[in-house]
Structures are given as structure tokens and as C-alpha cells.
Amino acid sequence: MTKKQEIIITILSSAAILLTLLLSSRLWFRLDLTEGKLYTISQASRSLARDIPDQIKISYFLSEKLQQLYPEPGEIIDLIREYVTYSRGKIRFTVRDPAKDGVEDEMQRLGIYPRQIQSIDHNEATITSVYSGILIEYVDKIDVIPFVFSLETLEYDLTSRIRTMVSGKIREIGIIAADSAKTLDRNYRNLSGILKNSGYRLREIYQNELINSEIPDGLSEIIVIGGVDTLNDEAVYSIDRYIQNGGKAFFILENFTPSTESGSLELRPLEQTAAENGGLLALLSSYGVEVRRALVLDKSCLTITYQSASAGGSPVIRLIRYPFWVSVTRGGGNPVHPITSTFAGLDLFWPNPLDLHDVEGIEAVPLLFSTKDAWLMTRDFTINPERAFQFNLEEGATRGEKILGVALSGRFPPYSLKGGEIPPSLQPSQAAGRPAPSSATPPSGGESPATPPAVLTAEKPGAESRIVVIGNNEFVNDEYLDSERNLSFFLSAADWLANDDDIISIRSRAYGVNRLDKIIDADKKYAAMTFSRVLNTVVIPAAVLIFAVIFALKRRKKTRQ
């Protein structure tokens, strides 16, 4: 080969490499070997372009310092670039440094605030303020993700926000915090924050609103927390009327409430004194769900720490497996339902079992199950760890799998009072012109009949609707909702009620919390741990040593030969 040929080949090779690099920014692929394809956007996100009439602009405001220190910003940029690739030009994407572009004041007006991180430079620890927020712009609408630092829920956040902006449909949830001892601001702030970060707007609904006005039909769904002992007949009728009009509802309630007023942990049964005709429990019963006045205990449970006194009177910290704090494992979720199709688990605290009975026009699907080693406490409700010997008194008679959560869909029958008559307080003339829910009321809009029937029956249900029922409201309390498993289940249920089934599939691909909770029996778990310890510290090192000795002997033999 001549020198001239070498120069030509070198130039052509360099040009080919340069063109390949330029083309790779547009034509590229990524081999994703992670479980659940965490680094590949789903079909729901890929098909967004079909529903976007105008261009969407996504701006990622990223501090250069953060990008230099951590790999996560690069992963975020790659994921958003996949949106651009599949958008057919409908999505534009830019990365900007607020400090370099001088837009920090504008960022804070939009709700994108910096976070402080610690970095070490020349053996010196410094605190640096960094940005990692996303701004989405569509026509005259904007939405922001204030701070993002992982891929865990990024695709869900982007796709749900883009879809909401394009459709113009506001995803607003009404929250009825009806527990007599708790308030939304004091006890459910985590729940509010989770929903807001997921793109939902929240509207708190008070009991007097339920009595004096109707629940707005425009709400995507309502979440009813508690209320067994507080919601009266008028409030229950308002909830039923909302469901009759096609509204979706998430009932999170229980028959008991834990208390430490006496100085020790005890359970107080809730008395249904607010409603003469049964209240929320009777309403759910008319839909086919019975929330039993019993507690579920399970060998699959959490460990609690509590303080007791020794024989000498000194304080002692104890750890025990507490069967009232039920840990629902992955196998405890219904694999065929969208909410629990990729169920990671759930923690419930003093849950009530649910029973189902058939109601025409309603499909009832159990969502959550205890293990087969669960049992019930139906009397003498003792939950104090100091009296653990009383926990198993009914185990032999009640052992078996229990239903802990259900999903219902279909046309729900109107709620009937005992005796079938509408109370005077609920007559149209007495309730600000608001008729009690009945089969004669149109499901959405239209004129109401001049004279509502005096007897409400279940013969003519209302519009298609969906309901989720969990017999435990402690799992959404601030004290417990920091559990990633509870968070994931709660949002999946909220999305299913909002009819976003494909959105659920995106969230279910997010990182799960992989607890080692497959083995429930204590003896089997100890045996598995012992086997793992021996395998890793004895068997494997010994195998390596034996292999090395055999190899050395063979090599010596070959050398002699």
C-alpha cells in the first residue's frame, strides 16, 4: 500500500467516524436489560405524539455542578431524549443551566427551587445550591416538576402531565378527611404531597359541604378517609349520589381506632352514632362489601420496638414480631388486576377483614390477601404488646387467607335506608332543592323527575363507576405513608379510579422496594439465612481454594513431564 493510499484511507475512516457520531445523536438505541425495562419508555409514552396537536417544549434546568458530581442527570437527559425520538417533532427538549443563563429568579417564580448538596473539593467540604427541575410548556399552559433526581417516577410524571395539558382535563381529587381524630393538614400531609407531585389537584370537602351541597361531578374521584363514626345520613347520600352520577371513590376506613389515652396501647371500637341507618358501612354493604368488626393478624408482619419495665423496674427496649401490623407480600396482590398486576407489597396497621356478597351489575375483585397463616381477633380486642399471650386465642378457629382490599366496578344500586323511606331532611324541599339519589335521577345532567320516588331500590342503578375499599386508614397516615410500598399502591389505586389504566403500567415499572419477605416462617427464615451465610463464607471460598490446589497440582505434573 502506497503512502497516498494510506492517507486517503485515514481521511475516509475519520470522515466515517465523524458522520457516525453526528448521526448517533438522532439514530440511537439502548439495550435495556433491567427488570421491567426501567430505562425504556412505555408504549403509552411513545404514542403521545398521536394526541399532541401543537408542539410541546420541555426544559431541563440543571446545574453544571450537579451534572459533574452525579450520573443521575445524564440518565434523566437520556430518558427525555427518548420522548423526543418518538414524538415525530412534536416535543422539543433543551438543557439549561439557570446560573449561566441568569434565570434563577424566573425559576423560583415558576416554583423550581434549588436544593443544597454537600461536595468535597480539594479536601474541603462545601455546600452548593443546585437546580434539577423540569418545565413543560404547551400553548399557554405550563407545568413544573420542581426537583427530579432519579428515574423512579419520571416517566409517569412526564406522561401524565403532558396528557393532562393536551386534553385540557383537570385531574382534581376531592378528599373527605372524615376521621374524627385526624385532619388533612395535620395527619395526611404526605398523602397530599404525593398526589400533588403526581399531577393531581386537591380539593378538601368538609362534612357540612356534603350536607348542604352536592359533590361536584367534575372531580376525577373522591377519597373518603374514615367517617364510620362521623358521617351522617345526609353526607352518605351525597357520596352515593356522586357515585350514581359516575363518580369514582376510594374508601379508606376501619371499625377501630388505636389509642394511647390510658397510657398503654389499646383499640377503641368506633360507634356508628352519626348515622341512624348505618352510615358508610351500610352504604358499602349495599354495594356488596362488608367491613367486619374484627382484626386481622398474620405471621407475615412487621417488627415493632416498645419500652417496658424489667423485674427491677428499669426501662427495657424490646423487639417483637407484631401480628397486627400485617405485611402484605408480593404474592398477596391480585396479579390480574391493573392496580396490583406488579404489586410490590403493602403494610397495613390493625386492618379489618372484608367480606364480599353478590350484587347484580357489580363486578367485585379482591385486590389484597393475607397469607394462609393469618387469623382473626373478633372479641376482647387486646393489641398491647405486653399481653401478646392473648393474640392467639382465636387462631385455631379463624386461621386462613383473609381479603384486605377490593375493587368494584359496574353500575351501583342506589343506597336504601332501612324501611326504604327518604328521611324529611333529605326530601327535595328540605335539602336546598337537592333530591336524594334514586334510580329516577339521570346519571349525568338532565332534568330531575318532578316527584322523586318515596322508596329507593336497587333495581335501576346509575352510571358506570369504580370503587376501591381498604379496611384500614392508618396506612395513609403520615406516620406510615413514608413506606414506598404504601405509596406505590395508593397512587396505582388513584390512577385506576381516574381511568388511567396505561398510566398505572408506567408507575408499576418504577423501582420497587425489594424486601426479603418471601419467607414468613421464622424457623425457615433462620435456616435460609444460615445456609446463605455458610454458602458465602465457607463453601464458595473452599471451592475456590480446592480449584486452585487442583490447578496447581496439574500444572506441576505437566511441568515435570
Main sheet: strands, sense, barrel: 7 strands, mixed
Q: Give the terminus-to-terminus CA distance.
A: 47 Å
Could you tell me the mean pLDDT?
Answer: 81
State the domain count.
3
Q: Which segments are poorly predicted (pLDDT under 50) over 5 or more consecutive residues?
A: 418-459
Number of strands: 22
Q: Which short descriptors sum up this protein?
A:
561 residues; seven-stranded mixed beta sheet; Glutaredoxin; four-stranded mixed beta sheet; 3 domains; 32% helix; single chain; alpha/beta
Furnish the topology, listing elements before pairings.
Blueprint: H1 3-24, H2 43-46, E1 56-62, H3 64-69, H4 72-86, E2 91-96, H5 98-101, H6 104-110, E3 115-121, E4 124-130, E5 132-138, E6 141-145, H7 154-167, E7 172-177, H8 184-187, H9 189-197, E8 201-204, H10 207-212, E9 221-225, H11 233-244, E10 249-252, E11 256-259, E12 266-269, H12 279-287, E13 289-291, E14 295-297, E15 301-309, E16 315-328, E17 346-349, E18 354-356, E19 362-369, E20 375-377, H13 395-398, E21 403-411, E22 464-470, H14 484-497, H15 501-508, H16 522-560
Parallel strand pairs: 1-2, 7-8, 7-9, 9-10, 10-22
Antiparallel strand pairs: 1-5, 3-4, 5-6, 11-12, 13-18, 14-20, 15-16, 16-17, 19-21, 21-22
Can you tell me about this structure?
It is a single chain. The chain is an alpha/beta fold and 561 residues long. The chain has three domains: 35-156, Glutaredoxin, CATH 3.40.30; 173-292 and 352-371 and 399-508, no CATH class; 528-561. The protein is built from 16 helices and 22 strands. The protein has helices at residues 3-24, 43-46, 64-69, 72-86, 98-101, 104-110, 154-167, 184-187, 189-197, 207-212, 233-244, 279-287, 395-398, 484-497, 501-508, 522-560, and strands spanning 56-62, 91-96, 115-121, 124-130, 132-138, 141-145, 172-177, 201-204, 221-225, 249-252, 256-259, 266-269, 289-291, 295-297, 301-309, 315-328, 346-349, 354-356, 362-369, 375-377, 403-411, 464-470. It has a seven-stranded mixed beta sheet, covered by helices on one side. Strands 2-1-5-6 form a four-stranded mixed beta sheet. Helix 7 packs antiparallel against helix 15.
